[in-house]
Write a structure and sequence with these properties.
The chain is of the alpha/beta class. It is 34% helix and 19% strand. The protein contains 6 helices and 5 strands, in the order αββαααβαβαβ. A 5-stranded mixed sheet has the order 2-1-3-4-5, with helices on both faces. β4, α6 and β5 form a beta-alpha-beta unit. α5 packs parallel to α6. It is globular, with a radius of gyration of 16 Å.
Length: 151
């Protein structure tokens, strides 16, 4: 008789993938990974960093650090694209609908990402760490998107 394999739950499996995806991040402040999933299948992934073909912050320096911008504020003052945004873009680029999908992310999405996820039809979000953006949780709650923190 073969020994029973200890397999991670689906939630843990996809959360583990977010950690691997985050390792591709080019942000000097925070590495974030995102995975969009539907029917236990990965639809798209994304990590935070400068757009394709644009120099990374590791080369140019972080404008947010230079200006002393606190986390969770003035999102437009950044060369990087958020992990959630990159996952949405990757799905669109390849013609994959994410309507009805679940987002797994290393961090709770910011309010800008929350707005995009709401309009893209994401129905549930699992995340590991919080984020200093109260409006995000308010909007996700109002849009009736289930938000679950995974320890």
């Amino acid at each position: 008789m073969e020994p029973e394999l200890k397999r991670p739950s689906w939630t843990q499996y996809f959360m583990d993938i977010t950690e691997l995806v985050a390792k591709r991040s080019t942000c000097t402040r925070r590495a974030v990974g995102a995975v969009l999933v539907k029917d236990k299948r990965v639809l798209a992934t994304g990590y935070n960093g400068a757009p394709s073909g644009v120099r990374h912050c590791s080369e140019t320096g972080c404008i947010r650090e230079q200006l002393g911008v606190p986390s969770g504020e003035r999102h437009e003052l950044c060369r990087g694209v958020h992990a959630e945004q990159n996952a949405i873009v990757q799905a669109a680029y390849h013609g994959v609908s994410i309507n009805g999908s679940t987002l797994f992310c290393t961090n709770l999405p910011c309010s800008i990402c929350a707005k995009l996820l709401i309009n893209a039809g994401v129905r549930r979000i699992y995340y590991k760490s919080g984020y200093a953006d109260a409006m995000s949780k308010e909007m996700l709650n109002e849009a009736d998107i289930e938000v679950i923190q995974v320890p």
